[in-house]
Write a structure and sequence with these properties.
The protein has one domain (2-302). It is α+β, with helices and mostly antiparallel strands. The protein has helices at residues 2-19, 45-57, 61-68, 71-85, 92-106, 110-128, 133-150, 156-175, 181-198, 203-207, 211-231, 236-241, 284-302, 306-318, and strands spanning 22-23, 234-235, 244-251, 254-263, 266-277, 280-283. Strand 3 (244-251) and strand 4 (254-263) form a beta hairpin. The model is unreliable at 1-40 (pLDDT under 50). 65% of the residues lie in helices and 12% in strands. It is globular. The two termini are 27 Å apart. The longest helix is centred in the last third of the chain and has 21 residues, at 211-231. Strands 3-4-5-6 form a 4-stranded antiparallel sheet, sandwiched between helices. The protein has a two-stranded antiparallel sheet with strand order 1-2.
Amino acid sequence: MNTKLARIALAAAIAALAAGCGPSETAAPGTSSAPLAAIAATNTPDGAINASVASLRANNVATFLQNALPAGELAKLKTDWTKDVNKDPVTEDERKQFTDTMAKLTAPGAEDKMYAEIEPQLKEFDAKTAQQMPMMIAMGQGFAQSAIQQSKDLNDQQKQQTQALVDSTAKWAQTVKFTDPALVKSAIAAICKTARDLNLKSIDEARALNYDQAMVKAGVVLGGVKQVFAVYGLNMDKALDSIKVETASTTGDTAKVKVSYTTFDTPFSTESDLVKVDGKWYGKQAIEQWNKHQQEEAAKAANPAAPAIAADKQAENKG
């Protein structure tokens, strides 16, 4: 559960950044000037959000997770890291695929070789699929809007804001030629640079990383993702720099925070619920998930046979 939660947290952060990025101008992709001193200020509701923003701006995944996860969950994540990462055995095919991929991405002249390899596919895509892209984007936009309307986790205001963001994203996608040779070459260059900066030659080497080492590598990946998005006009750091946070209300150990930001030259805002635990503010959902996990662990300890019984019942229902 711990590594899964860490992956979800990081993925959510990246997804939020991707959704909240405006067109790139002159900001250098994948760079950061955010002061890490601001990251420690989590003793106020708005400070907690700003700390998470600052850590993402600095590609500091370890601090982002420290701010986003309850202390108990973070401690367990660190303790169980090596065990959880190595829980599933690696097949020889997976080992070979990882080694071959990293060797390919980091070899001298990798950028030119990779482009030459995919160039025929890009031309084929342009010939067969490019004209259908507007329709495909419109269909995706429709599916997303339907999912937003049916969501039980969003209130009416959040649904409106999310729909507007989806509409802006669709308009941007209509204007970008993702197969443009210059853009593709720049994206490949960013990917190859990230692979070289990771400096991991084998999957065994990656699985041997301890928590702190893995978080450093995760920061390298986040920086690489920023660079790739920037190639196509989405500057994550610019979006992060536009975020403004204010505490709308505080009642005891609960607070509501308004987060405003600009993307696609359009202002957006959303509200987040926070709760105070041990002097620090966290997202309400993170605390609820942690409490639920604690309850599940306590139930397992009290009745070790329960998971096996549940699995048997599930198998019977499928049968």
